[in-house]
Specification:
Layout: H1 2-15, E1 20-22, H2 30-41, E2 47-54, E3 57-65, E4 81-82, H3 87-101, H4 123-129, H5 134-138, H6 157-165, H7 181-195, H8 199-211, E5 233-234, E6 239-240, H9 248-252, E7 263-264, H10 266-277, E8 281-282, E9 285-286, H11 290-297, E10 330-334, E11 338-343, E12 348-354, H12 367-382, H13 401-404, H14 409-418
Antiparallel strand pairs: 1-3, 2-3, 2-12, 4-7, 5-6, 8-9, 10-11, 11-12
Length: 419
Amino acid sequence: MIYKTHVIRLFLSLLLIPLFVFGANENIFKEVDTIIEAAISDSAWPGAVLVVGDKDGIQYHKSYGFHTYQKKEKTKPDDIFDLASITKVMATTPAVMDLYEKREISLEDPIVKYIPEFKGSNETATLMKELVSIRHLLTHTSGLPAYKSFNYSEETPGSIMASILSTDLDTLPGTRYVYSCLGFITLGEMVKRVSGLPLNEYVKKNIYSPLGMDHTTYLPPSDWMDRIVPTEYSEQEEGFIRGRVHDGIAAGLAGISGNAGLFSTGEDMAIYAQMFLNKGTYKDIDIFKPETVELFTQRVYMLPDNSRCLGWDSPQGESSAGVYAGHNSFGHTGFTGTSMWIDPDNDIFVILLTNAVHPHRRYKYPNYFDWRQLVHSKVYEALDLTKENPECVWKERWEDPKIRNQYQEKTFWQKLFNR
């Protein structure tokens, strides 16, 4: 009796989930809607925004759930999310692409050419760092460690950057893949040194403004606050982080960093994805040459265990892109609960924005990762794009088709009520 009462309450609460829909494909995506709502009930995330489209535009755009589990603010399609590491491919990577096109840099240039302070703690360590190229940083094969901890109360943005630039390598460049935030922070600093503009100003001038991405920015203004989805609870702030970057180093660098710090909406991200599907062009606006897009979105294969392109990731193993993403797909995820995958083989992009770290990052494990893969896969199934990528596999939770298909609208609720 207690169980059925709980289920009835859960069902009624889900009826209150706002159904804001853009596009003409609501019926096609009904099962995807059910999956996302089931993920909410499984505490994978309190709310979400889904955007699906192709090179011609948005085909489906919908919001689900609430900003928090207290269910006070409904999630809306135009809500603004902390993109976390998607910053790497929506700010740092396009900035590097632009400088490359303008022939202001070469991918083989040693980073020390532009940042003389990129040195080690001794002569040998410095000699190793002189071998690090821009390409190494883009592919996470520089030898830099993944991250670095700081006592932020005792640091300034300048001291944090100086510490990062003087960090010793763990391995020789090109010999090991380690996903490194420090590498992309270094790239962001390089953009500033080469262009004379801070990273945020450079991408706004050269990428966001030309594309009309008016709600993509570092350091979002205060009048956007109601639309910004909160992330994790901060004991220091005695409340949820909202409108300030969640990542510690990016926050320590005053909110502007090559690894994190960007905020955006699903609609703006869709513009960006369309530009890449159209090989660098959006509505007759040329941002990149087709050959530059191809170069940066191809797999590099510098190491056997590295699925990276230049800046971007590609689908492999238990990929967040799902099991149907084409071989030439590229995308990225963000720690806060964001993901974007662009698939030129099938002419589709899928953007899933959540705040899975709410109210605490432990809520992500393992539910968020399981449901994220299922959502991306179900989008493909809804569009009848079901040719499985042999390089990708289902997460263990979904290996049994009966398990992953139980969330069809009627069957799912019947099982709950009849238990």
